Amino acid sequence: MLNRRKLAVRALLAVVFWPSLFFFWFLGPFVFFLLSTTSSEVCPLLERREQFLASANGTLPMLVLQTLIYAVPIVCLVLWSRLLPEPARTSRVVICIKLFAVGAMLGALWEYGSSLLCDGYGRPFFSPAWQMTSYLPIATLAVNIPLYILVFSLGRAFSMPDDDPAADTVHSDETTS
Questions:
Q1: Of 80-89, 94-103, 166-175, where does the model show the most confidence?
Q2: H/E element holding 132?
Q3: Is residue 113 part of a domain?
Q4: What are the UniProt keywords, alphabetically (predicted)?
Q5: Which of 1, 92, 138, 147 is the most buried (most CB within 10 A)?
Q6: Residue 53, domain extent
Q7: Which is it for the CA torsion 110, 116, 122, 127, positive or negative?
Q8: Which of 43, 34, 32 is nearest to 123 (CA)?
């Protein structure tokens, strides 16, 4: 009975994990980037530093929501790891959490910096250091590619049923009697 419950929970986690991984992680960045930065129509209308700051700060709730939505596959991995504790997988889940945290910080900094600079309109108001945020997508890719590979492989390992020969022999003995 316990194995059936574990299998049902694993299946439920897989139903949440795979769609969130593909839709949020592979398609979401394009949508969320457009929603979490200051629009190009608003940028030319901004004239003062306070307006640029207000516009960039207005994107913060979307950045927080984006990070929470992106965390769904990581939460699934943590739950799977708690359900099926295995030291090797658990250490890989911890690596995923660390990579995710770094990737989320880099992504948020990039998107906030993009809103602050507003396609070049805000440059005279802010430090040239904010211009460096335009290079963060390269760093984000350097973090996210290993993260995607690791999360995909862990998701595959966790969502596939384990081959347990002892359970198979017990089950076959029950069917023959």
A1: 94-103
A2: none
A3: yes
A4: Membrane, Transmembrane, Transmembrane helix
A5: 147
A6: 14-159
A7: negative
A8: 43
* Coil vs helix vs strand at 42: coil
Cα–Cα distance, 34 to 40 (Å, whole number): 10
What tokens were used for 108? 């948020």
Assign 11 to helix, strand or coil.
Answer: helix
Q: Is 5 within a domain?
A: no
Burial profile 101-110: b = 16 or more Cβ within 10 angstroms, e = fewer? ebbbebbbbb
pLDDT of 72 strictly over 90: yes
The tokens describing 157, both together, are 């390992």
Residue type present at position 34:
L
Which amino acid would we find at residue 136?
L
Q: Are residues 121 and 72 in contact, defined by beta-carbon separation less than 8 angstroms?
A: no
Asked if residue 74 belongs to a domain, the reply is yes
Cβ pair 103, 140 in contact under 8 A: yes
Six token digits for residue 113 = 């910096």
Q: What's the domain count of the chain?
A: 1
pLDDT in the model for residue 35: 64
Measuring CA to CA, how many Å separate 155 from each of 17, 19, 50?
7, 12, 45
pLDDT of 111 reads 82
